[in-house]
Amino acid sequence: MKLISMSIVVVALLxxxxxxxxxxxxxxADSHAVSVExxxxxxxxxxxxxxxxxxxxxxxxxxxxRQATTYYDLTGNQSAYSFELxxxxxxxxxxxxxxxxxxxxxxxxxxxxxxxRNATVKARADRLAAQEASEKKVSISAGRxxxxxxxxxxxxxxxxxxxxxxxxxxxIVVDLNEGKILRPESSNATLARFGTNELEIQRSELSKxxxxxxxxxxxxxxxxxxxxxxxxxxxxxxxxxxQTTKIIDDVPFYFWNDGCSPTSAAMVLGYWRNRGLTxxxxxxxxxxxxxxxxxxxxxxxxxxxxxxxxxxIGMNLVxxxxxxxxSADFQTIIISTWHVLxxxxxxxxPAVLSMLSGGAPLExxxxxxxxxxxxxxxxxxxxTLGNTYVIVHDTWDPLVNRHxxxxxxxxxxxxxxxxxxxxxxxxxxxxxxxxxxxxxxQVPIETRKTFTITPDAxxxxxxxxxxxxxxxxxxxxxxxxxxxxxTISATFGQNAMIWNWSQSGWGTWQYRAYTPSGLSTPYGxxxxxxxxxxxHGEYGIDIQxxxxxxxxxxxxxxxxxxxxxxxxxxxxxxxxxxxxxxxTGFGIRVNNDCVFDAWAxxxxxxxxxxxxxxxxxxxxxxxxxxxxxxxxDYAPIERDxxxxxxxxxxRQPGSLMTAGNASFTISDRNGTTQSGxxxxxxSGTITITDSTGRTRSVTPLNLKNRSMTGAVHQSHE
Length: 717
Description:
It comes from Methanosphaerula palustris (strain ATCC BAA-1556 / DSM 19958 / E1-9c). The protein is of the alpha+beta class.
């Protein structure tokens, strides 16, 4: 779990080298101090922002806020304030706000409690301090709480501020989370193993201070009176997960095995195996073996501890053992270089992140990482240092992503495995669809890459070409073991034409009517608000004085712009309620072939104004003329009509229905078929079956062959 020679260097850096740990500043000038009132205003603003942006903290919207603890740094200056939240009188969490403008406004928040507020933790620290004081024969104070960065909580038992200037064995400081006395040692030797030194840490701190001051300036500028230094409503840069998130897929989770560094490195190499480096061994889903064991051997890990510089060396040896052209190197991650890790993740390259005095993850604020390695697999950020969290796979509690504030450590190193070469796959898609990913896609050598082809709604894939050769109409294609550049392209065709009368009206539909001897006349087409189904197109027969026979037609020709054509028609509509059996009916012709005709009946109740849907297939054609007939034999009411909801033409595989053996199903408005409301046309008859199983036969409408005489009314738009 530990890295070799990782001594506790927090106090050494702060006192001996005068270096601040992350999110701790040197003694702030009075001009940079933040009052409790100002800090509370920042807390109130951000409690509302956190509640609005995260369902986990949504109850904070109604939280009461009170200041709980004032924290100090190791030089005796105020470093932060904690504010406790209660909802309905019940404790709900805390926020920590900086007490100096040389640090970012919001330092951390959690549903847990700060360790200094835990009576058991405080009592343990008191005992440790008393034992240490007895051995050193010195007196101690009741303890001053220290906050040295996100999740770094300590208790300083120096008697007064003068004692706070003491160093080494003259000082008694207890780590509240780990429950032990801090014993500072020389820090430069430790930092050297992480590719940095105290001077570089100091320079990084100056960079961090400048960014923190800018964040506070933003707060002040957002208020009407900047000199008041109160928090503006939209000013504070608080981390709310989900701002800009990048997570690398396919990185496995492994439990700690043979050390945190080889286990984390096994997750990284396991990711590359999932990407196509299949000569790497198949791993145990829990331990990562045999990769973990091989990495432990090549990193020279001993009793779970690994020298950071050996991590990339071990990773390189393992990939070379399996003849892969990949390599890892050593990158120091401190405040001045934090973008290096972000760039690795943006390049889809997970990394082993080895921390020196690492803070705790956001989800478990009471458990700092200390000297520990994890697999960095993503980030959540608004683009600023103070609001960027690294998403990690931790060997301590795998299967769950954890978030740690970037640079919430004294120093860290990143070891990412990278391909020595990449190839370009150029992906393109025509109209009516997409390919993902698209454009020039860089693919690491010997990995696989899958492309997904998706047609737009109502369209279909017509061809997929790989390196100029057809691979059919596949919806996805995977390049395996990529060792050269490639091209992939997809074309699409419109699969369906949908006409919705409530949206498109009548457009270029033509309509005509037949009525004998002028006893009735056509009416429509009109748009009508129908209480059953909503807005329809309607066309029918208007009875003036005497009932009589009447028939209407509507027709329109559709052309598939792709030239492929359609073979299936679906119609949705509502027939006028029938009063007598075999009174009203309708038929559909496609390219002058009857694909359906049937009567509505009252015995059983027939089409009592309920919507119905009908689907039939026909010979595929790129040009389709649709004719829909409506007939009323008796017209006992003032108007008989057919309500037109929608019609679609599509391409479907196989045969859905054969003309002359069609079913006419009447269903309710929710699409549920009503028992006893089915009529089926077979061999020149329609068989009607009611809910009791009783059947009867009637003559079909057969509109295509019926002889018509009398007045014909025709119109078009």
